[in-house]
Amino acid sequence: MSQAPVLIIGSDSPCELLVQSLRHQGVQPLWLRPETEALQLPRHALAGGRLTGSFAHGGRSQALEAVQGIYLRPFGRPGSGSQASALQQQLWCQAWAELGELFPGTVVNRVSAMGSNASKPYQLRLLAGLGFAVPPSLVSNDPAEVLAFEAEQGPLIYKSASGVRSIVRELDDEARSRLDRLRHCPALFQKRLRGSNVRVHVVGQEVHATEIDADVVDYRYASRQGGDAHLRPTTLEPRTRERCLRASQVLGLPFVGLDLMLADDGLTYCFEANPSPGYSFFEDATGQDISGSLARLLRGAEPLH
To answer: Which residues form the ATP-grasp domain (predicted)?
Structure first.
């Protein structure tokens, strides 16, 4: 392996797949896992606009300037242990997030670029500006306002309005019976659309599209809800593909997961842009080489077309 190493910070299956792809492409992966590392904070300095520093890996000191790319995914659940160790892990993750802002090479993805995901309504406005259709939406903690919105739009779904992951559900009779609880925390309500769900992973200039057939609202949790979901690779029409590439550029996310629907009304809707997609779910189900695209992006290789 002669190419400069790529640094991977995280613990889950997307990291595992990336490690495998980097090795397959002849690149040394340096994998830091928060729950297993000694959690020594990285050291760095800026001199004349040049970033230098070091970090610990496998009991050895590694030069930061020797790294050509960073895959930054350290935001999992804290490991078991004392409150002090959980705090140390949090500080370690924060240090790498801050260092990712300064690193001159490719970072997937910088925390500063992930900010749009903290507000779904804000992100929807950005996506609409790129030419995607977006569903009629309401953020509210007023049950009467929600019911009026339902009377106007028809069937609704609801989910978190923030970047916190939530299960998308239909506003049915059971959910309506709990609307008074909404006063404690607003939620995002949207018109229930019908059509084909498509997840698009943009990786630099490479695009992987997956069509999903599911008999539940949120296909990610189909088995939990007693349903089925079937995933298969698909091809986007050129205009939609270009919009997806443009979204990646505008949002500053070289790797992004876009949730689309090719709706029955003939429009292509975009529900959100995931700034740290758990792509392994899609790669495992379809065989699409998303991790290979990610490895090429991080090592600066030419994209496949």
So the answer is: 124-299
pLDDT band at 218 (very low <50, low <70, confident <90, very high): confident
pLDDT in tens, 28-42: 999 998 776 667 889
CA atoms of 237 and 233, how far apart (whole Å): 13
Fold exhibited by the domain 137-191:
Dna Ligase; domain 1 (3.30.1490)
Q: What CATH code would you report for 3-108?
A: 3.40.50
For range 160-182, the mean pLDDT? 91
Superfamily of domain 114-132+194-287: ATP-grasp fold, B domain (3.30.470.20)
